Amino acid sequence: MKVGALGPRGTYSEIAAWSQFKGRAEVVLYPTISDVVEAVARGEVDAGVIPVESMREGSVGESLDALTWADVKIKGEIVLPITHALLGVKGSKIEKITQVLSHPQAIAQCREFLRKNLPMAEIVEMGSTARSAEQVSKLGQPHIAAIGPRMLAKLYNLQVLRDNIQSGERNITRFLHIAKEDSRRTGRDKTSIVFYTADDRPGILHEILGEFAVRKINLTKIESRPSKKALGDYLFFIDLEGHREDRKVKEALREVERKTAMLRILGSYPRKF
Questions:
Q1: Is-catalytic flag, 173?
Q2: How confident is the model at residue 232 (pLDDT cuts 50, 70, 90)?
Q3: What is the CA radius of gyration of the chain?
């Protein structure tokens, strides 16, 4: 079995993939989240693992955008505790760091540490925490550091300058296990959908959400994303409790489809929380 994840070696996505499949699969690394989703859609890999939501910084837009139109389904969710470390080349000193590289989510999660300890450092956004560590290792400059999991120190021959630099006591990221098909009913499921309303009239969103409320279906998440078709045009993403094959959920989705220009069921899968 082959599983796609965001590379290079040592990303949290790779860690999440290993935790989900526990050595039962070969992890294939891709340069972007969209590449992972497309690889699953093409059948190049059997499954993929992508980040979708951070407890502290919210949703990962690239993942939602990629899932909207791709021929893939959400088969499961993975909840991974995240801890960040400041990593530098051997001999680096934290007081000498003038530039910090990392993924935007990791930077945001460590904003308080950076403000207090490296207020003058230049912050450079990278495609992944692992790519940041790889770059610091290649450059070999003692004034440049990366933020990422401490395991990157071993992978890229770096040293941990400071551990557990993320804000707050708990920092959790939710990943999605994607495949060509979603999961069967378990009795404790979650369903993710995305819809688009061409009819931009007062109360349309209230009407749609009412289909779930009247059936006492709990919505665990709702948010909008630009459709990228026109300014002020949005797609709506919803996570709800229940499986698409549950009678009440099936009824609600049928009514929602009647009120929308586009409805996609992204998948039903066992819920972890």
A1: yes
A2: low
A3: 20
